[in-house]
Amino acid sequence: MSRSRKTATAVRAAMGWTAVAGFTLASPGPAAVADSRDARDSRALRAPAVTIVPGGEGILAVAGYTGPRLGAGSVLTLTAPGGSTVTGTPLGAREYRGAVAADGGSGTYTFTGPSAGRPWQGRGFPFVLAVPADAVPGTRLPGCALRLSDAEGRRQARGTCSVTVGMPGPTLTRPESGVPLHARPEISGTAYPGARITVRDKDDRTVCTTTAAADGTWTCTPRPAFPAGANRLQATAGLNGVSATSEQIRITVRPRTVGAPDRRRQ
Predict the structure, then answer these.
(1) Are 234 and 251 in contact (CB under 8 A)?
(2) pLDDT tens-place string over residues 106-142
(3) pLDDT digits 0-9 by tens, 167-214
(4) Which of 5, 68, 145, 191 sits at a 20 to 30 Å CA gap from 266?
(5) How far apart are CA 102 and CA 110, in angstroms?
(6) Shortest CA distance to 49 belongs to which of 33, 29, 31, 27?
(7) What is the DSSP string of 84-152?
(8) Spatial CB neighbours of 31, under 8 Å, sequence gap ≥ 6
């Protein structure tokens, strides 16, 4: 399956992780609490928390198994959290066969190589997850689960994983970069509906704040007025504890003529 450059870069990053460094131990689910032996199991599978914007894809890489040697036919399974789907198993190693369920509800890697060695240790196993376009930023998707079974289907390790819906980056569409401006130009753009918008200048001072409308548009006016000269603007959108920033734009404010009224639009 063809992949975008962004997804391919994320896959290479996941493949470059060594052993378990940088991974966080997932919190035990209800079943783990019920089974004290599993709750104390040092073989618990691990995966770093991931944040994926609505309508986007991200990589969740699984590692951490330190238990007995498992041979051919052993299977690592990721159960997709609610609302998301598994869309790929991009590990490029011939000893592993990746598969995705028809409904995208899960993905698996099956070890098909020789029994020698420890096939589930010392590497990360990447799964591509897709989040629906109508997912709400800041939502933690429930039900993400990991399981490693031997060739007979007996569970050898398990874990949970954390997938949070991210904030799409806002845009700054006005003022236009490079056009000389009055001291209080209208600033506008687009963002996720309901997101709180904060515009800051080159000195990280807040220029203006507003909330994105239901159609995703937003507008605000600087207060106080910009000083004359070169400046930069950047918008941040935040909602439910997640945020994203726009690209910066460079602006130039004309010196104000003494006695001239302060205009609100460029």
Answers:
(1) no
(2) 999 999 988 777 899 888 999 999 999 999 999 999 9
(3) 999 999 999 887 888 888 999 999 999 999 999 999 999 999 999 999
(4) 191
(5) 17
(6) 27
(7) -EEEE-----TTEEEEE-TTSSEEEEEE-S-SSS-TTSSS-EEEEEE--TTPPTTPEES--EEEEE-TT
(8) 38, 158
Whole-model pTM: value is 0.75
Can you give the three-state secondary structure of 162-186, one letter per residue?
A: CEEECCCCCEEEECCCCCEECCCCC
Q: Could you tell me how many residues make up the chain?
A: 266
Dihedral through CA 37, CA 39, CA 45, CA 47, nearest 10?
A: 180
- Beta bridge partners of residue 237, listed in sequence order: 197, 244
Query: Cα(first)–Cα(last) distance of the chain, in Å?
Result: 48
Close Cβ partners of 22 (under 8 Å, ≥ 6 residues apart): 48
Q: Give residues with Cβ within 8 angstroms of 60, minimum separation 6.
A: 47, 48, 50, 78, 126, 127, 129, 144, 161, 163
- Smallest Cα–Cα separation from 56: which of 6, 2, 122, 108? 6
Per-residue CA distances from 190 to 106, 218, 231 (Å): 34, 6, 21
Maximum Cα–Cα distance for the chain, whole Å?
86
Q: Which one-letter DSSP state was computed for residue 25?
A: B
Residue 120 in tokens = 């589930």
Across 50-86, b (16+ Cβ under 10 Å) vs e yields bbbbbebbbbbbbbbbebeebeeebbbbbbbbebbbb
Tokens of 173: 């569409």
